[in-house]
Amino acid sequence: MTFIIGQRYFNEADVSLGLGHVVAQQDRMVKLHFGAVDEQRIYAKDTAPLIRFKPQVGDAINCRDGRVVMLTKVTERDGLLHFEGTLDDSQPIQLDETALADNIALSQPKDRLLNAQLDSPKWFQLRQDAAEVRSQLWQSDWYGLIGCRTALLSHQLYIARQVSGRFAPRVLLADEVGLGKTIEAGLIVHAQLLNGLADRVLFLVPDSLVHQWMVELLRRFNIHASVFDEVQCQALIDSGYANPFESAQQVLAPLSLITESAERFEQLKAAGWDLMVVDEAHHLKQPEYDSYLDSALMFDERTLSEDERAYAVIEALSEVIGGVLLLTATPEQLGQRSHFARLRLLDKDRFNDYAAFVEEQAHFEPIAAGVGLLIDAQQHNTALPLKQVDKLLAPHVADSVLKELHKLAQAPENTPAFILRLLDQYGTGRILFRNTRQSVSGFPERVLSLTTLQAPVSYVAMDAEVMGLSPEMCFQAQQDDSQWTETDPRIPWLVEMLAGLKNEKVVLIAHHADSIRALANRLREKYGLHAALFHEGMSLVERDQAAAWFADFEQGTNLLLCSEIGSEGRNFQFARHLVLFDLPPHPDLLEQRIGRLDRIGQGREIYLHVPIFNNTLQLTWFRWYHEGLGLFERPNPAATMLYEKFKPSLHQSLQAATVEQLIQDTREQSKQLLQTLARGRDRLLEYQSHPPMAEQWVDQAESAEAVDTLIDFMHRVYDLYGVDFDINSNGSEILRPTEQMQGHFPRLPDEGMTVTYHRHHALANETWHYLTWEHPMVSEVMDMILTQEKGNSTLVAIQHRDLKPGQLFLEAHYQYALSGRQNRYLAGILPPQRIRQLFSEGGKNLADQLDPITLDQASQSVPQKTAVAVLKAKLPVLKQLLQLADLKIKQQHNELIRHWQKRVKRALEADIVRLQQLAELNELIRETEIKQAQNQLALALERVAAMQPQLDSLRILVTM
Ligand SMILES: Nc1ncnc2c1ncn2[C@@H]1O[C@H](COP(=O)(O)OP(=O)(O)OP(=O)(O)O)[C@@H](O)[C@H]1O
């Protein structure tokens, strides 16, 4: 489309915005102002959902100054429409399209009906059904959460539903490795986008995960995030963008893009975002230095390390961006204090005192115990132990909560709601979510396969402490000529093991990229083994190519050699053998490594192959990880705390007796700590992140999918729009455009496409499009149906025993819809309202007596010629009935608006009261959240007051 400033367009996806005009355009973007709702919107030119408004000679058009002009001539000059016409008093007038009113309605069912432009009843029916379905979708709590290509897993659905309904949510998603934080974040973003709670979303991820994120967002969530790197930024600047980040709505960028360039950071900060997602947030390290937010110092390399700068830029961004999702599987990797620092990014006021934070955790235990007793009683269907619970809670909760507890004696069915309230008010649940393997079942067994090897003489000669956990690196640093790969026995051990595993895929991780490079050379040169490599010395594209080569089961390699960066975020669950070529220097890193294979979708047991040198520090660490913490069997939530404590001893070369003591102490303290955590913090976190009732949500979500209704609806759409569809026996359908197609059909490529409506097929066949009520094709089809004129005027015959033949009725459907930004969220409370009127020839409104279903069932189509004849014969009476319909709606208008305002007030006030109550008890409720909710209410009431009826469709019914 070519856009000229001043041209007038409708947004076909939201006609309630009124008639917009082009105010600016640049390269691929166009900006419109919609005067009726005073909003600016920016669109990509090639996908803009805009329809040019082109009135014709004979049309009466409304001008901005309120005058109405009957058009006698329409011409185009320099891209703008010029009109000649007459005013009411027959005065001639000339004007151009810039003078048109902003609130012109798009479809004109009245004109079409009176001009005998009648559509078949099928079109009318489709239009009514689309309006009904859309209204239900917008009211559904599941809208945005069940249309993604993901299995419906209760722990993810629960978190996503909790978070996605909030304004500007700020949370830490901290599920254990591989439990689906990316999926949870994707669901939250998707639902926020669909519900109009966010438009501009920024994803900042480690360099090595950019490609994987891009693919997951697109493949699972239909989110087309634009990937930004330095080259892309420069290209956009060269093409005229002052700020490259303003060119796209959803941006995915490596965090390094802004930590390495002050200019890019400032641009990103100025680009305005609703929501920011930061992956692998454990890398953010709060600087100790005070004025680190000073932008001149932030980028001075002498002041901050890379991880500290990462923290500083995210802190600066989180001060200007409302919604923030931080993702990390290992929140405590750098210790409790650094965990606290990340919570501080989400809420500075709340997390300003570390000592208080630590102290607070101690009170979680009695509350968790109380919640536990209630949940147990629920699950086993036994009497609620109210006295016991009262005793536990009384010292820690408000009196109002205890009162509610006592009421459960009379109304035990309110227990689940009470538990939720308790969790909501007395934990970190609103801000921190963490699911663990213990609370989410179905993970594979881990099988440890340990091989102890004699260290080569050259290693033994080195000082154990200096040698550390990667002896080969230490050796190499001291040698010029000989290579460690020539003597290291791990290599022949590896080759032999690989030979035994034949066609299995194997991931090998070592701490250093140099170890990986040397190992790859040796395997290739001496043994003819070609492995894929994945390390920080490679470009992002090279890494993605290597991962893809490894993932290819037909022509790919079976061995992937990764440095530690391969141990984060990547999906390698198609493999089940992991070689730990060395041990990482932190228990969380070990968990990250194992998590590449031990993640959702694994399905089979995984094998951990660990070669360890006797008589080295490696053995001490192995025993400490294994016998002390049990880390090769399952994650250990106490590991970080114990690491902090025992770190000094672990780094020393130790006598055998001291090692035994160290391991015994670790084991005992781990046991105690785990028990304490399981009673307090972790238990509460577990309930908050995945309460038992979440299981039922999966069933609810499944029934909200309404797959059969969708299939029926889409089949009618294909029939009417001329799209060819073939149903296959494998659960898919093939859609193809045809010559008979009625204009453009959204998202249907010329070559056709394979689709499925079923989740299990969609998960198994990633090349098929997964059509759901939330899929862009389906949403755009509904937009198309509801905004085009087709189906807004029809005539049918009806045969019904209660209705005498020869009568005529006029059915008019008016629609009231909210307009403006966030209308989707409000639309959840007040979806587009349809007012139906049904008049007899005598002007009696029979809408309540004759419901639409009865009429639909009794109706038959009428040949076009007959319909036109009836219409002509009844024109005078129809005109009167149309006037009557308008009059009636005007009479009801104020009453309707008041009624809807009450409804909106009731819903939004309940939210505000709940937040205020929570704020008294739980500091995690932010003042801004309450203010936002109050502003939202004021805005909503204004929006409701501004609603105007639009005549949507008309049907004439003639009885036989
Ligand atoms: N609901 C789901 N449906 C289908 N696949 C899923 C689902 N949840 C997770 N997965 C798959 O499981 C793997 C792990 O999920 P994800 O990457 O979201 O976990 P994570 O917690 O972010 O992992 P990490 O801690 O390694 O960053 C991915 O391959 C993901 O696609």
Report on the structure:
GO terms for molecular function: ATP binding; DNA binding; helicase activity; hydrolase activity, acting on acid anhydrides. Keywords: Activator, ATP-binding, DNA-binding, Helicase, Hydrolase, Nucleotide-binding, Transcription, Transcription regulation. It holds the Pfam family RapA_C. The protein is an alpha/beta fold. It folds into six domains: 8-106, SH3 type barrels (Roll), CATH 2.30.30; 144-350, Tandem AAA-ATPase domain (Rossmann fold), CATH 3.40.50; 364-430, no CATH class; 446-664, P-loop containing nucleotide triphosphate hydrolases (Rossmann fold, 3-Layer(aba) Sandwich), CATH 3.40.50; 706-771, Dihydrodipicolinate Reductase, domain 2 (2-Layer Sandwich), CATH 3.30.360; 790-960, no CATH class. It contains 36 helices and 31 strands. The strands form six sheets. A seven-stranded parallel β-sheet has the order 12-13-11-14-15-10-16, with helices on both faces. It has a six-stranded parallel β-sheet with strand order 17-22-21-18-20-19, with helices on both faces. Strands 4-3-2-1-5 form a five-stranded antiparallel β-sheet, with no helix packed on it. Helix 2 runs antiparallel to helix 29 and helix 4 (181-194) packs across helix 5. It is elongated, with a radius of gyration of 33 Å. It starts with 7 loop residues before the first strand and ends with a strand. The structure holds adenosine-5'-triphosphate.
